[in-house]
Amino acid sequence: MFNHLDNEVLPMEITRKFLGNLSIDFDNHTDVIKTVKLLREICDIYAVISLSEKEQTLAGKIRTICKVEGISYKDSFYFRDKVLMKQKIRTLNIKSPAFTPLDKTKISKAIEFFNTHRRVVFKPRAATGSMDTIIVNSEKQLRDLCDKYFEILENYYIEEYISGEMYSVDSVISEGTVVFSGIMKYQSSTLNFQNRRNVFSCITPAEGELTNKIRKYTQKIIEFFRITKGTTHLEIFVTSTNDIIFCEIASRPGGGYIIEALENSYGLNMYEAAMRSELNEPIIFNEQESKYSGFIMFNHSEGTIADLSYPNIEEYKWILMHEVFAKVGDTTSRSKYITDCLASFLIESPTYSQLIERLNFLESNFKVSYY
Question: What is the per-residue pLDDT across 285-323, written as a single tens digit (0 to 9) for each?
Fold first, then answer.
């Protein structure tokens, strides 16, 4: 893309007109860094804000170059590379899945790992949304995956399969203090998008002993990673005995309708909070009535949509938001990641039990067929 700074004289001051003409290709990290260095000649950079997963290492690099507070370039890799992340978390002496990086010269090591655990999860080191994440149930399946991804196998790893429920915790850290931790419970597997009947739902859970335990655990993880500002999205397993097992952590807000659900229940917008915390500004909470929130997403399968129907939105005031991305006659492929969906619905309820009932109602009455 056209780089304004390479082609015109630098202004004496930053103006709206100047910034309006500034065009940066954020996919080209070399150009971004070059532009940042030029900007530093005419102004001070005192905060770097990044709300997307793929820009976290770039944001860390800019902070390091500009000597800005926040997650550094070196530390940003612990949030992008899940192998580095889990190697680091091992030193905290908390429960986490056993894992091994994949190496095309050491396939036998992966097979040995599988034979030890008998069920493993094949994962990319740096993807999001459960993309290319596959439960492996046989040695043959693992060998086939290693063959399929052979040329880029070093970009993947395997870890032991953990039985239990999944929760996410979206936190805001301001001036070294965790000021908010919003918990969401995954009602179904994040890998459901790979199945024929592919539905994923997520809710704010009932508060109690478990949620208190999760928040204390989250505080410990955030302190361990030395996060002093910004937001995090932590995912954990909770076993049948309420033991917490680390899954992964990201240095940005969660996806799907997590942000909208948390704002509806707690009165805090995670995107706004992320920006305010990086700028050392007060975090704003809006007063909210006590309510539960959740969302449900319907992923698509391969084929041409023959029929698509769902409840009349106007009849159900508890449906706060909805998006439908396809219509009868559209040809779709199998969803590639969890938020790659046909439709999604954000809902609310004054009680936890009714929230579950409403999610079940939507799941039962969303109809799609293919030919």
Answer: 988 788 999 999 998 888 999 999 999 999 999 999 999
The structure tokens listed for 307 are 């029929």
Count CB-CB contacts under 10 A for residue 120. 26
Please tell me the pTM assigned to this model.
0.88
